[in-house]
Amino acid sequence: MNQRLDVTDTELSILEVLWREGRPVPIAVVVECLYSERSVSAHATVQSLLGRLEAKGCVERQRAGRAHLYVPRVARGDVIGHQLRALADRLCDGSVTPLLTHLVTTTRLSADERETLYELLRSLEAPPEKPKRRP
Q1: Residue 23 in contact with residue 63, Cβ under 8 Å?
Q2: Quick check: 3 pLDDT over 70?
């Protein structure tokens, strides 16, 4: 497994801010999104967590004048996949079937969500398309 995608819940909340913003952001923006009041301790906490994420390779720090801006270096889907695989390993002996079955049977899915799942399952059953030959 990719160890750099092992992120804590708090680190994940910071990544969520960076993904949502979709642009390089200073620490102050992350602090404002996560804390109701700006404080020296909140700023220091976010700075420390961003440093840990940078060391893992999950974020990149860019210099903009005197400020540092942060951007994610990992995709949301990669982190989700890693976290779900780790959960399946921990709770279901590595099998995703019990995890998926539980989620689908205990969650009220909308018609759109059900159709998306049906389409996914149909695409997995379909044989791969063969490349067409030119005459």
Answers
A1: no
A2: no
